[in-house]
Recover the amino acids of this structure.
């Protein structure tokens, strides 16, 4: 069975969605860069091994990333899932796990990379927002896209209401992407993600505001 690790920095709701999805693999560890990450207790209570690689204990980003990479390798991970892991990773780290390092980002990339995506969406006035699961490349938030989900931006939305609408989709698409990779139903080809047997029906368009 394939092994995967999940990296978190905080709440860990995406981690919970991944573990609850009973993916075809073994979660060999939940690793946090913060000892106080709330998600650690949730994972431990379910018998998932947890560990902390505290970024504050390292003099440099390179040293931290080397220790993190060693911990991931020690867990025998075939797949590394970043789930609210709020550290920028160095190029050597990303290269080391290229093709098996995946992230979820709360926007429809390439729109709104970086932080505060929901505030940016509201400020820009986009009518459609969402989330993206993608392979990680050295450039921040711009690797090959595996799955996206779109939600409407509604009149009266705040960053919090919009974040909640997007998060509900995150919890659906991240397990779907991870399952696809573990089952080898999607692969990287020429810098793009190809799904085998992609039978996605031609969905009706999401028009916002909706038709009258
Ligand atoms: C999620 O919305 C995730 O997409 C985002 O942080 C949140 C973590 O929540 N990740 C990023 O912004 C990465 N750039 P969670 O800890 O409850 O999964």
């Amino acid at each position: 069975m394939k092994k995967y690790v999940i990296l978190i920095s905080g709440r860990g709701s995406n981690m919970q969605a991944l573990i609850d999805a009973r993916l075809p693999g073994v979660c060999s560890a939940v690793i946090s860069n913060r000892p106080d990450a709330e998600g650690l207790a949730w994972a431990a209570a379910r018998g998932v091994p947890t560990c902390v690689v505290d970024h504050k204990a390292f003099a440099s980003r390179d040293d931290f990333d080397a220790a993190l990479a060693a911990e991931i390798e020690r867990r025998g991970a075939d797949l590394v899932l970043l789930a609210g892991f709020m550290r920028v990773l160095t190029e050597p780290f990303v290269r080391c796990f290229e093709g098996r390092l995946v992230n979820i980002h709360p926007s429809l990339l390439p729109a709104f990379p970086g932080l505060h995506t929901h505030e940016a969406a509201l400020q820009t006035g986009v009518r459609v927002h969402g989330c993206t699961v993608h392979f990680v490349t050295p450039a921040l938030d711009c690797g090959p896209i595996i799955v996206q989900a779109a939600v409407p931006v509604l009149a009266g939305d705040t960053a919090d209401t919009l974040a909640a609408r997007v998060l509900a989709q995150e919890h659906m698409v991240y397990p779907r992407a991870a399952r696809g990779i573990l089952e080898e139903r999607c692969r990287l080809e020429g810098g793009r993600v190809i799904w085998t047997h992609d039978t996605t029906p031609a969905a009706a368009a999401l028009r916002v505001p909706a038709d009258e």
